[in-house]
Structure prediction request, 305 residues.
Amino acid sequence: MPMPEFEEKDKWNKRSILVNAILFILKLVVGILTLSMAILSDAIDSGIDVVTSTMARYSVKIANEPADERHSYGHGKFENLSGFIQAIIVVIIALFILSEAIRRIFTGIDLEVLEYGIIIMIISVFGKLAISQNLLRVARKHESIAMEANALNLRADVWMSLGVLVSLSIILLMVDQYPDIVYLDPIVAIIIAFLIIKAGFDIAKRSSQDLLDEHIPEHEQTIVQEIMDTHKDDYLEFHRLRARKSGAERHIDMHLVVPKNKSIEEAHQIADKIEAEITARLKNAIVVIHMEPCDGECVGCQREK
Prediction:
């Protein structure tokens, strides 16, 4: 049975796909009717969003599957991989938009029925704003990098659609008096392309951090250190602390040195207490503690002699 966490993520991923698909079709039709490069660029971006939203949903579904023989650490990194692939797609399409907008500046611009474009941009702004806010809320609640990448991409799209809306309105109001104002259309498309490229690099950076097994965030490292400090009377030292993220999971392991004269049961109880406190404070943490005996020269062992 799917967990409630997965069901909530899947629900909003499906809504994201549906909204982006509708907006893509509407913008494409209106972009062709108006001959607006800015609208067509925004339409292409919505088409990208359909692909990336589908990838986000698929990766979240895989990441939710339990560990198996081939993936003993689970499937969390499928989300990170999805985010990285999304970034590559976004940058490639943005470069196409950039080149096409520049070409239009030199070949001439002829815009028509801009009123349709203004209407679809208004729909786009409100539709994407609603979806992105809910996606971001659910992504941060369940720490889904794929969903967060999708949500941040959609949030950037809101500003792009606003830019297109403003530029089309200005052109519609001023084109009779200033015919060259039509060049604002490809210029806005160029700005959109650069914004998409920036968003792509931001997503790639976030995704690659976990793919490359970077350490958990500093504030989470502090939590682990605080817990170890509260139990410092139970052990001698700890070392080889390693902690990384895989999707929403944290994998933490360390070596814990205890007095040689402690029984296996006592050492095991110490490890259990530390593991329980870390997992209680860090969501989805998987903690493994390797116990080591001291060299027999510690204060505790000397006291027993």
Remarks:
- The first helix runs from residue 4 to 34.
